[in-house]
Amino acid sequence: MTAPTKIAVFASGSGSNFQAIQEAIERGELNAKVELVVTDKPNAFVVTRAKNFNIPVLALSPKEFASKADYETAIIEALHECHVEWIVLAGYMRLISEVLLMAYPQRIVNIHPSLLPAFPGKDAIGQAMEHGVKITGVTVHFVDEGMDTGPIIAQAAVSVVEGNREATEMAVHKEEHVLYTKALQQLLK
Ligand code: GRF
User: Fold this and answer.
1) I want to staple 12 with a disulfide (CB 3.0 to 4.6 A). Which of 19, 88, 93, 99 is the partner?
2) Ligand 1 atom 1, closest CA
3) Residue 154's pLDDT is what?
4) Which range marks the domain in which residue 160 is found?
5) Helix (H), strand (E) counts: the chain
């Protein structure tokens, strides 16, 4: 077997997608190694999850940097130190600038809880329910400068549970955890 692909997972929140990826790696379903979890929110639950797996965390607050370019440059230095090859965004709530995009061309992916191009941006599940769609879903895509706009890699549909946001969210997240792992299996081969 070839050496595991070195990845960094970027997250700002709960980190359930990070955990699903790490568990897939531990089950031997994904030939990768999470070298670093990067967060812009030092108190996010993803930090606790990473520590439970003994995975190093880089928690940098963008406010502490003079510019976004400086913030991303500091991240890139840490990624290079760990020889990270791919960046996996999993609930990272910031747009990626050209500094990171140029450092990892065609090597940054994201997961979004809708069938893009429908409902980009924040609260995609809320947007879908508000709109009254019956089917929503999950998209894995390459990252570009836009908000959830890069080329689509994989999608899966999820039925909306009418009037029940919690149940819809649960169904979407469950599908995310499956689809992200599958998409990464293909990409990192
Ligand atoms: C997911 O719904 C993902 O699609 C979106 O942010 C959420 C992150 O969830 N980009 P978690 O932090 O992985 O639990």
Assistant:
1) 93
2) 91
3) 98
4) 5-188
5) 6, 7
